[in-house]
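Check the record.
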Amino acid sequence: MKIFPYKTYLIVILILFNTMVASAQMDIFQAARINDTVAVKKYIDKGLKIDTVDSSGYSPLIIACYNESNAVVKLLLNNDADVNLRDKMGNTALMGACFRGYDTIVRLLVNSQSIKLDIQNFNGATALFFASTFNRVAIVKLLLAKNVDKNIQDNFGNKAIDHAQMQENNEIINLLK
């Protein structure tokens, strides 16, 4: 079967359009990663879904939190990004910020009205577990001030205090008693 030139042209246009749409979705992740508020704002203004996820299940908010992109985090939160969205392991943006030790981002997230502070990932860990395990004293204090549940157990029967004890961090141990 012979394809006429206009059909070939149409196929090429469709392929290019699909490629542009796919790359536009990927660009918001890169913009979040590098704290590019101008680019993220353009995506928001175009009506693109800010809670879309990449192949690892990371939303732009989760990526921004893992990369200390404070301005993008603030912009996404102000545009109603889902602060409780989870990646493929069940981790949230708050867990990522606690893991990385980004106090400013943790403050932004915990002050979000819709945040659920005690979400557990697929291993049963909470944001407090990450802060305790990675010796993030200031973040532990911040989470406790927001009344997180320090008695939650993970899938192995451990509480946040047990993780602090494994790290031999007496300051966090005393905070969690």
